[in-house]
Design goal:
The complex is a heterodimer of chains A (about 70) and B (about 450). Chain A is mainly beta and about 70 residues long. In chain A, about 0% of the residues lie in helices and about 55% in strands. Chain B folds into 3 domains: about 5-100, Rossmann fold, CATH 3.40.50.20; about 145-200, Dna Ligase, domain 1 (2-Layer Sandwich); about 205-450, ATP-grasp fold, B domain (D-amino Acid Aminotransferase, Chain A, domain 1, 2-Layer Sandwich), CATH 3.30.470.20. Chain B has helices at about 10-20, 40-45, 60-70, 90-95, 105-115, 115-125, 145-150, 175-190, 250-265, 300-305, 310-315, 400-410, 420-430, 430-435, 440-445, 445-450, and strands at about 5, 25-30, 45-50, 75-80, 100, 155-165, 165-170, 195-200, 205-215, 220-235, 235-240, 270-280, 285-290, 335-340, 345, 350, 355, 360, 370, 380, 385-395, 415. The chains are: A mainly beta (about 70), B alpha+beta (about 450). Chain A: Keywords: Biotin.
Chain lengths: ~70, ~450
């Protein structure tokens, strides 16, 4: 068991959160959609595991390098 | 009657301010909280806040923008492109408030905004349209195979409620049609709550060529020749040019003349663009849509024809522009526009907002124009689109224009955000681009040569 930080690569607005804490997630699954410069930027799960923690909510502004979620893999 | 409110931001607001100045008019800017220090605010004679950073709460709130226009004592409202420029509701509200809308009649905006009505109007005006079928409701596909034969293959099954590439499926052979039609209906029902579909002819190797038009509202209208905007990525234009390379003279003449006819037919008023999809192999061309506003790439036309389209829009709104005769429009040489975006081509074109720590663009010259809404030290925020500047050049031939543009791009120095400058140079230096072999698939097909993806 290890905890993996999921970071954003871009500054943007949290448009949609597609998962809930406690959900099982698979590698490549869409977790969050950011909106930046009129584009939708998906944040994907880096590994299979369980979504341990969500650190953002819809409507938040998140900056590059921020941890948005933690996955237990 | 001398005050123009510009309901926009960025480079187009700055560009409109320049024309206002030339005409001796007072310019009024609006700005969101994120744009308080923006160049368009500094350039304008007056500037007023219009809400928070998010465009949905500022630049797109018609009532607030109109209120600022009225409070400022503006006589005219110029919408630019994007934002409220194609909102007939806003245009009507401006006119109802006793101000003058710098744009076409709101009815023209409505007519061209409804894609099916636009198609009908184009057809009646003698503009070639892509073969298409009537609509098919969910489960009522009995006659779809005959409709497919009539349209011809390959064809697209399109969800009536879809758009921007969503709800669109390619059918290459008749035996695939029924299954794909059913699948598209069921997908469209879930995605849009409307499973209605129709069929449209698909052009495999397509170019995007558009014609700049200008109508005088009395049935007189002219064209200002074409722009080739085939170099696109995700329906976003990247490089535009005029003359369209390799377009046979007879095709060009027919295209520009039907575009002008469409405007005459509508008694269109002001600047507009008639967009066509062109079969790159046969040069057959078909009506795509008409945009009832000034476009991003209008400087290409201005460089080749020596016109000021924004100035013409304003003078027409002032009832100070006599109809111009077609014969007086001369197209000379070749012009190219490159759009500098804050994005990272090597990382799948990921947007790259941030501070413009260093921001140096080439100097303007008789053959080089820079349209830009930023200065060194400004923030490129994530709230708005990623375009930070347009570089437009003009030369006597296409080859020389390409060389001039490459030279200009080499002088661009931007730090703090990633940009597509090198990517633009790679496109311009590509042998197919040099040979005029452009198509809407160009960037996708050559992606690995053009980027480090």
């Amino acid at each position: 068991m290890s905890l993996i930080d999921v970071k954003t690569e871009i500054t943007g607005n949290v448009w949609k959160i597609e998962v809930n804490e406690g959900d099982a997630v698979t590698e490549g699954q869409m977790l969050v959609i950011l909106e930046s410069m009129k584009m939708e930027i998906p944040i994907l799960s880096p590994e299979d595991g369980v979504l341990k923690e969500l650190r953002i909510k819809e409507g938040d502004v998140t900056t590059e390098g921020n941890v948005v979620a933690v996955i237990e893999a | 009657m001398n005050k123009v409110l510009i309901a926009n931001r960025g480079e187009i607001a700055c560009r409109i301010i320049k024309s206002c100045r030339k005409l001796g008019l007072t310019s009024v800017a609006i700005y969101s909280e994120a744009d308080a220090e923006a160049l368009h605010v500094k350039m304008a004679d007056e500037a007023y806040p219009v809400g928070p950073a998010s465009a949905k709460e500022s630049y797109l709130v018609a009532d607030n923008v109109l209120k600022v226009a009225m409070d400022s004592g503006a006589d005219f409202v110029h919408p630019g492109y994007g934002f409220l420029s194609e909102s007939s509701r806003f245009a009507r509200a401006v006119e109802d408030a006793g101000l003058t809308w710098v744009g076409p009649n709101p009815q023209s905006i409505d007519d061209m905004g409804d894609k099916e009505r636009a198609r009908e109007i184009a057809k009646v005006a003698g503009v070639p349209i892509l073969a298409g079928s009537p609509r098919f409701d969910v489960g009522k596909l009995d006659t779809i195979e005959q409709a497919g034969e009539a349209v011809g293959y390959p064809l697209l099954v399109k969800a009536s409620a879809g758009g921007g590439g969503i709800g669109m499926r390619l059918v290459e052979r008749p035996e695939q049609l029924l299954e794909i039609a059913q699948a598209t209906q069921s997908m469209a029902e879930k995605a849009f709550g409307d499973g209605t579909i129709f069929l449209e002819r698909f052009i495999a190797n397509a170019r995007h060529v558009e014609v700049q038009v200008f109508g005088f509202g009395n049935g007189e209208a002219i064209h200002l020749y074409e722009r080739d905007c085939s170099l696109q990525r995700r329906y976003q234009k990247v490089i535009e040019e005029s003359t369209a390379p390799g377009l046979p003279k007879a095709v060009r003449e027919k295209m520009v003349s039907v575009a002008a006819s469409l405007c005459q037919h509508q008694k269109y008023s002001g600047a507009g663009t008639v967009e066509f999809v062109v079969d790159a192999d046969t040069f057959d061309f078909f009506f795509l849509e008409m945009n009832t506003r000034i476009q991003v790439e209008h400087p290409v036309t201005e460089m080749c024809t020596g016109t000021d389209l924004v100035g013409m829009q304003i003078r027409l709104a002032q009832q100070d522009l006599a109809p111009i005769k077609q014969e007086s429009i001369n197209h000379q040489g070749h012009s190219i526009e490159c759009r500098i975006y804050a994005e990272n081509p090597d990382k799948n074109f990921m947007p790259s907002p941030g501070p413009l720590e260093r921001f140096k663009l080439p100097s303007e010259a008789h053959d080089l124009r820079i349209d830009c809404g930023f200065q060194e030290g400004d923030q490129v925020t994530f709230f708005y689109d990623p375009m930070i500047a347009k570089i437009i050049c003009h030369a006597e031939s296409r080859d020389r224009a390409i060389d001039r543009m490459i030279q200009a791009l080499e002088e661009v120095e931007i730090e703090g955000v990633k940009t597509n400058t090198k990517f633009l140079m790679s496109c311009l230096k590509h042998q197919d681009f040099g040979a005029g072999k452009v198509s809407t698939g160009f960037i996708g097909e050559h992606l690995s040569e053009l980027t480090n993806n």
